[in-house]
User: Fold this.
Amino acid sequence: MTILVTGAAGFIGMSVADALLARGERVVGIDNFTPYYSIDLKHARVARLAESHGELFTFIDVDFGDADALARALDVQNIDRIVHLGAQAGVRYSLENPAAYIHSNISGHVNILELARHRSIAHLVYASSSSVYGMRTDTPFRVADRADTPISLYAATKRADELLSETYAHLFRIPQTGLRFFTVYGPWGRPDMAVWKFTEAVLQGKRIDVYNHGDMLRDFTFIDDIVNGVVLTLDSPPDDDGQEKPGGFSTPHRLYNIGNNRPEQLTDLIAAIEAACGRKAEVNLLPMQDGDVYQTYADIDDISRDLGFAPTTPMTVGIPAFVAWYRDVWTKR
Assistant:
């Protein structure tokens, strides 16, 4: 089986591609190395996949937001399934560069849907986000909850992706699963995320900015658990049986939350990083930033019932694993 993984130079994309390659699948990875964060890190991820898996892995540098370029790049590639993880990420950056989100997250998603349509793809798994729930105060967040009050452009594009996918599932019967990820962290992670930024600052003796004075809750989910959920999902496409599925759809389309099912205070994250680094953090307490949400908390009953998904990595294990990778691998590259 050949699987297209978009965003293969990204954190989750590289990790999912690695798992699929490790079990013998052929993976075609695409990315266009946008400079939102370190391009060196993105190149290092792709190099790791190539070095570890040889000819099973094919990488193509292409912008999937450009329909013509995407078609040319994949013209000779036979693709059975798609894991669409590429996107313009970041809540705060969407305030500065909204056009990047429309290009990648809206136009790019439609281009992938068109690819799935014309290639008769057996299953398209795509990344959504917990940010679609907005400022909900009733927790945990359930897929059945309304998700029509996003408070950032990023969140709005992810909700739009879900609706576009439902339209294509209805019109063209494309089997699809959207995954709402909850605060993913771990080795090879993103330097714009709190776990990386806080670890780097603590080890360098620099002050860290802590928003809402540390009173924020996040359902921190370790990358290995996320990868397990993505692979479980990819292997079990939804049936086109007219039955209602998670998300409320009767098409071959469903939505799942993937989280740790255990929200943690931001102050507890800092304490875990301090313990793993063996140093105290210098903290700069700040008010809430525009576009941020107070809490995330995943109800994972749907994916647990349907696919047997069960996260196994608490923060007390995941944070030391990230700190060890940062110290022993990334800083010594």
